[in-house]
User: Fold this.
Amino acid sequence: MFSIQQICKEIKSGTKISFETACKLANHSNKQELYNAANEIREHFCGNSFHLCSITNAKSGLCSENCKWCSQSAHNTSNIEIYDCIDTNVAVEQAVANGKAGVHRHALVTSGRSVSPQTLNACIEIFNEISQKSPIALCASMGLLSKEQLLLLQKAGVKRYHCNLETAPSFFSQLCTTHTIDEKIETIRTAQSIGMEVCSGGIIGMGETMEQRIELAFALHDLNIVSIPLNILNPIQGTPLYGTPPLSDDEILTTIAMFRLINPKAYLRFAGGRLAIQHIQEKALHTGINASITGDYLTTNGANITDDIRNFATAGFCIT
Assistant:
């Protein structure tokens, strides 16, 4: 007999579910039972604590990579602001203000395959100033970096590096051909090898199947990822994915549930596209989510930090 409660018991005991079992769970006819199981696993491993992070778009546009989802790619024609490196004072003020508002971590994010020495030095200066003025933890998302570059960030106080896998290994080449998912994995493993934590997730709704979403969830589990941002595609005009039909509410909630059941101990994080699912936000919060990016995103508006904290607390979470 296929019993969700028995599977929950096995996950709680430390057993990793199989890919085949995960696919059966995703197709379970009683979706609410699946969502409740994911919430039960979240409560068991993570309690009711909720984690907030925010980001600064430190370098915007003119990226050499041809990612079909991204408005910052030079291959696409989206109307976005383009600049080489954000003003130091602006970036520092944003991070400090977010920390005072209750955000736990803050990241500088740069467009591009990697980062130039000049931009890296500018970002390190920003990190150093943030550290002097705020206890907020520091993260970075700067593409495919070498060990030497990661060590410089680590020396500047960056404890967690972000590098999204974006989608399943079997689907990645259909969305980007200028770099590979193996290069992303190499960067992740290098960051981990020097003692950095890693944040890595993906985007759903880009044409992948549910099985490929599950494949991504397992790839992240196998990499021991501690923080998993789950973006929902926002099809931006000027990108090849503009006009992509949105996922149904059940597809989104089922995906969240599966990521939680496969990654029971991770921070499973609301990320891009959250404003489009506000009508199911409370359901998602009780389907495995226990973290969120708050404030604005890279090229799109996000949520108000104060509103987020109030809403997450109302849903029963503790933001500490």
Q: What stands out?
A: The mean pLDDT is 95. The first helix runs from residue 4 to 12. The first strand starts at residue 49 and ends at 59.
